[in-house]
Specification:
With 414 residues, this protein is mostly helical. Helix content is 77%, strand content 0%.
Length: 414
Amino acid sequence: MRSYRDLFRTPEFTPLFLASAAQTVAQTVGGLALGTLVYRATDSPLLSAMSMFGPSLAQALGATLLLSGADRLPPRATTTGIALAFAGTTALLALPGLPLWAAFAVLLAQGLTASLGGGVRWGLLNEILPADGYLLGRSVFNIMSGVMQVAGYATGGVLVAALTPRRCLLLAAALYGAAAAVCRLGLTRRPPRAPDRPSVAATWRTNALLWSSPPRRRVYLALWIPNGLVVGCEALYVSYAPEAAGTLFACAAAGMLAGDVAVGRLVPARLRPRLGTPLLLLLATPYVFFALHPPLPLAAVLVTVASTGFGASLVQQERLMSLTPAELSGHALGLHSAGMITLQGVAAAAAGTVAQLTSPATAMTVMALGSAGVTAGLAAADRRYARRRTAAAGAPGPVPDRADGGAGRAGGGG
C-alpha cells in the first residue's frame, strides 16, 4: 500500500477516518471552550490547563484496569458507545451553574472512557489495513488530526468570542453524536479480536509483557515523556496569550501537520529510523526561546516550527510495531496512546504549577529543557544497549531486535 488513494479505497477506512475527524474537532472546540470558561471563572493558569488536559491523567488508571478490552470487545459497538459517552458528558459540562468539582469529576469519567478508545481505534485500523499499510494509515490520521485541530482551534477561538463557551460545548457534544452515528452506520460488525473477556488481570499481564523488553520500553518512554512535556507548554497558551490562544493552538496543529506529511509520505523508509532523536529535539528547542517572552507573531512562528517535531511519533510507532508480536498490536498501541495522553496530563499539571509560581513563559522554558534532556538520555541509552548487544554477539554491527523483544510468548490471555 503506497498511496493515500489506496487507503480510502479500503473498506471501512473512510468511516473510521470521518468519525475520528469529527471527534478531533469536538475535542479541540470543547477543550478550548472549557479552558476559557475555567480561566474566566478562576483566573488560574493551573486550573485552566487542567481543565483542558487533566482528563489525560485518568488514562493512567484506565490503562491499568480497562485496556484489555481493546482486543476483547466488539470494535463497532465500543467505538459507537465511547462517542456517545463523550456526547453526553460534554453536554453536561455546558450546564449553567455546574460546580467546578463536578466539572472535574466529569472530566475524570471522560479520561477513563478515552483510555479504552485509543486501543480500540488503532487496533481496528491495524485490522482494516494490510500489514504494510499501518504506518501510511496512521500518518493520514495524524494529518487529519492536524487539519482538524487547525480548523477546530481557529473556529473555536472565533466561536468562543462570538457566542459563549457553553454554546461551544454543546456544539462539541453534537459533533461527538455525529461521530457515533458514523461509527454505527459505516463500520462492519466484527467479533472481538481476542476470545477472552476483558479483565484487570489480563490487562496487567499484557502490560507487564510489553514492558519487559528493554528496547520496547525505551520506545514507550520516547513516545510518552518528551512529547508530554511539550504538550505541557501547549497547556499554557491560554494563560500566555488569553486573547490569542486559538491562534497558537492552530499554529501548533499546522506544524504537526507539516511534520506528519514529511515523515509519513516524503521521507524514504531507509532514513526514517535516523530521525527519531533529531525530531524530538526540534520539538522542544523552540520553546526555550519563550524565556525571552516573544511577542505573538514570533511566538506563533516558534510554535509552528517546534510542532513539526511531532512527526517523531510516526518513527517511534513504526519501531514499536517492529518490536511487538502481531497478536499484541492492539493492546500495544492502546498502551502507547493511553501512556502518551497520561503523560501529557501530568505535564500540563506540572507546567500549570510552575506557571502559577513563576510565569507561563518561564514554565514553557522549563518544560522544553526537560523534554530535550530526556530525549538526550534515551538516545544515549539506546547507543549503550546497541554496543552491549554487538559485544555479546561478536558481530560487526548491532544485532536486530526480534519482534518479541525477548519477552517470551504472548500467552496468558494477553
